[in-house]
Amino acid sequence: MSEFLQFVFSGLTVGAVYALVALGFTIIYNASSVVNFAQGEFVMLGGMATVFIFDAGVPIWGAAALAILLTATIGILLNKLAIEPARGASVVNLIIITIGASIFLRGLAQIVFDKQIHRFPAFSGDTPFNIAGATLLPQSIWVLFGAAAVFIGLYAFFTRTLMGKAVLATANNRLAARLVGINTNFIMALSFALSAAVGATAGVLVTPITLTSYDIGVMLALKGFAAAMLGGMGNPFGALVGGLLIGLIEATTAGYLSSDYKDAAAFIVILLTLFVMPQGLFGQKSMERV
Amino acid sequence: MLTRIPPRVRALLILSILILIAPMLFPSSFYYRIGTLIFINSIAVIGLVILIGYAGQISLGHAGFSGIGAYACALAPTHLGLPPFLSLILGAVISGLLAWFVGRPILRLKGHYLAVATLGLGMLISMVLNNEAQFTGGPDGMMVASLGLTKGLEGLFDVNLKTSVVWYWFAGVMVLLGAWIALNLYNSPTGRVLRSVHDSEIAAKTVGADVARYKLVAFVISAVYASIAGSMLALFNRFITPDIASFLHSVELVTMTVLGGAGSVLGGIAGATLLTALPQALTVFHEYEHVMLGLIMMLVMIFMRDGLLPTLRKTLTRRAIA
Amino acid sequence: MSLLGVRGLGIDFGGITAVNALDFDVQPGEIVSIIGPNGAGKTTLFNMISGIYKPDRGTVTLDGDDVTSLEPHKLAERGLSRTFQNLQSFEQMTALENVMVGCHMSERSPVWVDLLRLPSSSRRNRETQERAMTLLKRVHLEKAAHMEASSLSYGALKRIDIARALACNPRILLLDEPAAGCNAVETEEIDALIAEIAQEGVAILLVEHDMKLVMKISNHVIALNYGEKLAEGTPAEISRDPKVVEAYLGSHGGKEAADALG
């Protein structure tokens, strides 16, 4: 039982990170129908930038805030320089553009930072709590609460503020949104900034536990993607549930079956989801119009 | 005069001439090696031209099939006692069968969903190759038997040959063969259905085409191409690591395919040539390899949406008219 | 026994009934038109009959055989063919190739024959090309044969769509607004073409907004409103039907509507 609880703890911790990546996917996907394969690089940049700014002598909170700001700026640039000029391109082209962006950012991180594995100290020390025989790191609590805070904050933004509603309107019908006076270009930039900031936040929160390096983005993006699809593409609540589920499945696979194949769990979940219910757990069934 | 020849034959002629004259420009025999690598990548890319360019179905997992082909050649000779050439065929058969089994559910998906499902498939293959270290040597890779081309020829003609030179011609012939098949397909009943699926799946169905079956056909053919390319790479390098099945390699293959112009076999080969030769030219800037690859992918897809060759052709004809 | 039989057909989208309890028959060589305001469910009906949507209720029969929810390509094999309101052209193929794809059922061959370009593959190619050319001539587009579809005009693409559907040798042809967006001359041509096809014994089910065309060539008209059958009868009967007139223009515009319906 304590063993199972341990898996649940570690599963929820990584699951919360996957949920944030999936949430980042969802924000951009809803605003632009682009699936951003560079989403994992936002997480990497958040973690790596914090490490280097912190090492330069800035206090950890300041470093984290700067890193998130920096990543959000890169998100805006990505939209401005790569996504906006490619409007109207085919799905295949867009996939290659965002994968290109992902490889580019990875290469850039490798030059600007380095190829080493890094971490910075946990926010509240490394002394674990002991709960019913299982250990829980204080940083895990930071991750879980941080993810919950981001989720609630975004929920409030999208449902309570005019700006948030403008994003939803743009997602729903770009032309109609523009006709009622919404600056859709600004909304796109905002979505990329938000999405990048969410990813960077995940990177900041989880780096003390999982460490970071220039190349962690690919796997994170793929698992975040798996989470988003499991939950139902475009549904923020689905992204949250999907992320936690993938984390739990992965942790129990690693614990009970084989740690070599823990990464396989996410992909088997993706394939099964796509085959059995392509709309995901909370997605809507779509109908082809002819 | 060239315009009188059917496009299919013209493409094959151009390709043969390029393969024949390229060695005249090689400053050293090292370039035969690069040429061979270009041809091997071209074979995988021609398969993807059929899948992506003709049928409009993306795959981000085809490196997985290359991995199967490569490891078939690494494992079958020692474990099953098969000669390397038969191992290549065995790999192609396994890849084709796997593609056939998983293809039907996967190909029901479209766009991003298809991309992610194929990506997942490739990842799973790559994980097996990485994790089953008692067979595959894990991430460190393993040695591969020789195809014995050079020895065979030397025995036949009593000459001294350089392996890379022999491989250059062997791989060149294989590219021509692969291109010939893909070009045959283009203007055939089957090829026409594939190309119609690219533009409107529903319309293709309403004229009586079993679209699911045709997509599967394209998927299996492209898997076999990728597998053969993987086998050839293993036999050429005499060494293989699971990197051949990695996501990055899948992405490279797709990029090559779309870079030159996904709809055409020659475009695909041009893309393969560029992306294979460029890192060799940039070895000095090894650090910048990823940055360059990412930049090229973005720039071409933003500014030359149809790929290099078609964009070039359009610009040229516009010039000619103007 | 009718060629096409529709019984109690209905479908819902997310709780909203798009088409409900529809019954009608089409006989060989007959031209039956479906009319109704936008959103009446005409295209949805076509999508159900041609196997693109699976109906929630009711049956579709061909020669008395139940073919409800069969895949579109199976229906094509049984002689049901269609065109699309919003054009589903193969844009990157030439006009000729578009029609050649339509000949698919008569030219399909084992894949390996095509991969190796065996003589039988080349021969089929030639035969298909000739047949497709004849069909293009029939819609007066032989000059555009080698132009890419994406470079052709809307009216030309509409006609290619018809030629492609004819290439399937259909016994019943579903035409979804074949004259939409065409000028008067083109409409006239399409009008003549439809009549000619019906003369050859092919049944035609037509959705069209051009009432003049509908009233002129139909044997039979079915008026839909909100997914249900409002009226059915000869063109003359329909144009006098007060319910149809009201559905089109509201109760006040009765006289004008009657004039418009001809």
Automatic annotation (TrEMBL), chain A:
Keywords, A to Z? Amino-acid transport, Cell membrane, Membrane, Transmembrane, Transmembrane helix, Transport
The listed locations are: Cell membrane
Q: Molecular function (GO) terms listed? A: transmembrane transporter activity
* UniProt signal peptide: none
Where are the membrane-spanning stretches?
6-27, 60-79, 91-113, 140-158, 179-205, 211-230, 237-258, 264-282
Q: How does it sit in the membrane?
A: Multi-pass membrane protein
InterPro entries, sorted: ABC_transp_permease, BCAA_transport_permease
Where primarily located?
membrane
Q: Under the cellular component aspect of Gene Ontology, which terms does the record hold?
A: plasma membrane
Give a yes or no for keyword Membrane in this entry: yes
Keyword Membrane appears in the UniProt entry: yes
Q: Name one GO biological process term.
A: amino acid transport
**What family, per the record?**
Belongs to the binding-protein-dependent transport system permease family. LivHM subfamily.
**What name does UniProt use for this protein?**
ABC transporter permease
Organism, scientific name: Pseudovibrio exalbescens
Automatic annotation (TrEMBL), chain B:
Quote the protein name from its UniProt record.
Answer: Branched-chain amino acid ABC transporter permease
Query: Which UniProt keywords are given for this protein, alphabetically ordered?
Result: Cell membrane, Membrane, Transmembrane, Transmembrane helix
Spell out the GO cellular component terms annotated for this protein, sorted alphabetically and separated by semicolons. plasma membrane
Q: Which compartment or compartments is the protein found in?
A: Cell membrane
Q: Which GO terms describe its molecular function?
A: branched-chain amino acid transmembrane transporter activity
| Top-level lineage group | Bacteria
InterPro entries for the chain: ABC_transp_permease, LivM-like
- What residue intervals traverse the membrane? 12-32, 38-56, 86-103, 112-129, 166-186, 216-236, 256-278, 290-308
TrEMBL record, chain C:
Report the InterPro entries cross-referenced here: AAA+_ATPase, ABC_AA/LPS_Transport, ABC_transporter-like_ATP-bd, BCA_ABC_TP_C, P-loop_NTPase
**What Pfam families does the database record attribute to this sequence?**
ABC_tran (PF00005), BCA_ABC_TP_C (PF12399)
What biological processes does GO assign it? D-alanine transmembrane transport; L-alanine transport; L-isoleucine import across plasma membrane; L-valine import across plasma membrane
Q: Which GO terms describe its cellular component?
A: plasma membrane
Instruction: Write out the GO MF terms.
Output: ATP binding; ATP hydrolysis activity; L-isoleucine transmembrane transporter activity; L-phenylalanine transmembrane transporter activity; L-valine transmembrane transporter activity
List residues of the ABC transporter domain: 4-251
Q: Which UniProt keywords apply?
A: ATP-binding, Nucleotide-binding, Transport
Concerning PROSITE patterns, the annotation shows: ABC_TRANSPORTER_2
- Protein name in the entry: High-affinity branched-chain amino acid ABC transporter ATP-binding protein LivG
Whose protein is this, by species?
Answer: Pseudovibrio exalbescens
